[in-house]
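Dissemination and training. As part of the outreach component of the grant, students in the summer workshop were shown how a complex can be specified as a set of sequence lines and then modelled as a single object. The example used during the hands-on session is reproduced here so that future cohorts can follow it. Participants entered these lines:
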Amino acid sequence: GEDVEQSLFLSVREGDSSVINCTYTDSSSTYLYWYKQEPGAGLQLLTYIFSNMDMKQDQRLTVLLNKKDKHLSLRIADTQTGDSAIYFCAESLGDMRFGAGTRLTVKP
Amino acid sequence: EAGVTQFPSHSVIEKGQTVTLRCDPISGHDNLYWYRRVMGKEIKFLLHFVKESKQDESGMPNNRFLAERTGGTYSTLKVQPAELEDSGVYFCASSQSPGGIQYFGAGTRLSVL
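and obtained this result:
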């Protein structure tokens, strides 16, 4: 099975908040990441959190980390149509281990 | 500063042919990684170079795949002969340190017909 799991689809209305969830399996991960892939583009590093942190906020993005449950979430406030993309959760153990990606669709 | 660049952006070949993908990491990054995403599944690690040496190639699927990084700068990933199941997007990433943040290229979309 996959080391990193995330739901495949999320649909929200413009202006709402989006929450993308992820579970990982290796508690020794140093960093946990969120990457964004827009159509036809590569992977863009969106944000990351060091494993000894619980929360990180960066403008409209909030990352929450629950190490006990190995759960990572990405909250996007005031979601815009330009946020429509695939969001990948990843853990770093030397090499990166990714989830299958969550396709976020933002409806006007 | 230029990011990670990959060439070509898209390659369409027939089964049995050979394809070579290229990755230019961020200047000064000793660590270079190859990943691939097939059929919309998760992105899978292929291998990791530290300078010109293969640090970890545990993710390479079989001996039809050959990665090189002569001189410790750019890297190539050759698939020979290509099979249908090799179709997907091949990503390259680089980082300053082995556990450091990895920056990804735009990927090469490989289509094997």
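The radius of gyration of chain A is 13 Å. Students were then asked to discuss how this feature might be tested experimentally.
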